[in-house]
Amino acid sequence: MQHARVILGRIAGVYGxxxxxRVVSETKPKDNIFDYNPWLINLDGSWQxxxxxxxxxxxxxLVAHLAGYEDRDLARKLVGAExxxxxxxxxxxxxxxxxxxxxxxxxxxxxxxxxxxVVDHLLETGANDVLVVQxxxxxxxxxxxxxxxxxxxxxAGLIRVDWDPEF
Length: 167
Prior knowledge:
mainly beta, Elongation Factor Tu (Ef-tu), domain 3, SH3 type barrels, 7-stranded antiparallel beta sheet, 6-stranded mixed beta sheet, 2 helices, 5% helix, 47% strand, elongated
């Protein structure tokens, strides 16, 4: 199940008076967001391709200057907008590794075939990532391959887990 777009971050605020914006990145490391140009910016429900003129770390965050946004008032219109790219622009994941965007929406079943729901999103806990599975109730399942996650079949849209349905 391929997604047309992958969210890389969002525009969190304006920076300075020359149209720069503060950027919150979901990439690892966070400045990898600048490896992708142009960005797709979601403005009022429609995606627009906008060139990144310059992007750089600033303090603990990131700032960027986008083409067509030369002053603070114009840049303010971008605040809150999501930043994305087309899914096919991401490099192939290494064997046994997955992009979070590819896991969202997959059906989760136990080894004996009990359906638990679908992956709604993932959480980063530090120790390991956690699948947030929405079914008849919400379940948090550690994304630990070999222990809890036994199989990820992107083609079939399925994750098979060793998990007690009572948990």
